[in-house]
């Protein structure tokens, strides 16, 4: 059974003992959306291979290129945000999206002034899944609804990322920020 939250709003759990904290979040619905991209891609290939060329080459070429381009964009756009991996080490927070790690964001901890736990972040708050920017909210990587890590940056902006065990990520960032503000250098 979990203990009640601490005064700072985080669940009471021990801080990670490893030098590097890692976490991830996954959205399996994105796999279903990528199937529509595969369907567009298959349609473009089917048109190119089995077309009778009756209506002319220009309309056929436009249809093939349009279907293939839409398919590739949908597949990349959805598979890039199937999961997110977050790593907090002594120097930076790094966020990598998808299977090839793109898009990627690295935020040096020297630019971070605070970390907060957000228990309920939804794609609707940010305008959908993916890498998002909203002038009044800052930037975010949202791959699913649920808990998130919110970093307050020194330039007044925020960066939010949905990740499992966001409370652990907050503790890891805060621990490293305390090391840096007490005169010691992180990692020493």
Attribute tags:
9 strands; five-stranded mixed sheet; disordered C terminus; four-stranded antiparallel sheet; elongated; alpha+beta; 188 residues; single chain
Please, could you describe this protein's structure?
With 188 residues, the chain is α+β, with helices and mostly antiparallel strands. The protein is 35% helix and 30% strand. It contains four helices and nine strands; from the N terminus they run βααββββαββββα. The strands form two sheets. A five-stranded mixed sheet has the order 5-8-9-7-6. The radius of gyration is 21 Å and the shape is elongated.
Low-confidence stretches: 14-18, 183-188
The N- and C-terminal alpha carbons lie at a distance of 35 Å
Percent of residues in helices comes to 25-40%
Radius of gyration: 21 Å
Portion in beta strands: 25-35%
Largest sheet: 5 strands, mixed
Number of strands: 9
Strand order, biggest sheet?
A: 5-8-9-7-6
Class computed from helices, strands and strand pairing: alpha+beta
User: Average pLDDT, to the nearest integer?
Assistant: 83
Q: Write the element-wise H/E pattern from the N-terminal end onward.
A: EHHEEEEHEEEEH
Overall geometry comes to elongated
Number of helices: 4
Write the layout of secondary structure elements.
Blueprint: E1 21-26, H1 29-50, H2 57-79, E2 83-88, E3 92-97, E4 104-108, E5 112-121, H3 123-126, E6 130-134, E7 138-142, E8 146-153, E9 158-162, H4 166-181
Parallel strand pairs: 7-9
Antiparallel strand pairs: 1-2, 2-3, 3-4, 5-8, 6-7, 8-9
Helix pairs in contact: 1-2
